[in-house]
Amino acid sequence: MSKEARLKVTWCDSDNAYRVSVPPRLSSTGKREQKSFKKKADALVFAEQVKARKDNFGILLSGQMSPAQVAEAAEALNLLAPINVSLLDAVREYLRVYEHRSQSVSLEQLFEQFIASRSTKKKREQELRQTLSKFADKTIRVCDLDQKHIQAAFTSLTNSSLESHLRKLGTVLNYGQQKGYLKENPVNRIDKPEVERDDVQVANVETVRALFADALANDTGMIPFLAFSFFCGVRPGVRLSDLNGATFAAAKSS
Length: 254
Fold this sequence. Notes:
It is built from 11 helices and 3 strands; from the N terminus they run βββααααααααααα. By secondary structure, it is mainly α.
């Protein structure tokens, strides 16, 4: 036996026994162990058993791993030591993340799936594609998408435009979350911009009656516009130009 590989047997007065200190690399627990024996012969036998176990393991390991792989595993263990994580746990966690990523899809694929899954009107589809176009990298997997990617894509937008794009992106990512493509929706972590909206003013009955009376007397083409404006629940944000094309013929055909 080489002197370098032999474990040292020492006498310990406090324990009144012979002691063998097993270093972490030879310990079955991965931590330093202190073994005590009443007889020196028993201590020497134990030391030789540990040495034999180490030699046998080395022979077995050499048939399964190359020297480079052994060195790489040792370096991995050194990197994990400060955070008290075993190499096996680290590998299992990596495989879990890898499997999750492999089941995800790109941002562009998710948008296409979402559009295809719904009877989306042409205008709505165009709005969704405009939101997607803000991203420079549309191939990014949605499980990797985070707040920084979104904020970079939507930089320099007005608050109202930002709110609109965030709402559309959030809807698409919620769909992806339901499909298992991502664990959480990063849009939920972004502070929503404050958008100032004009206060809704209610027209009294007299004002509405006067406007219709004036239209009947002077400009009947205004009647559809007034009817849509007052009685059809026009939502805030609808442009007047959207209503200017309304005519009696359009009103009759509806």
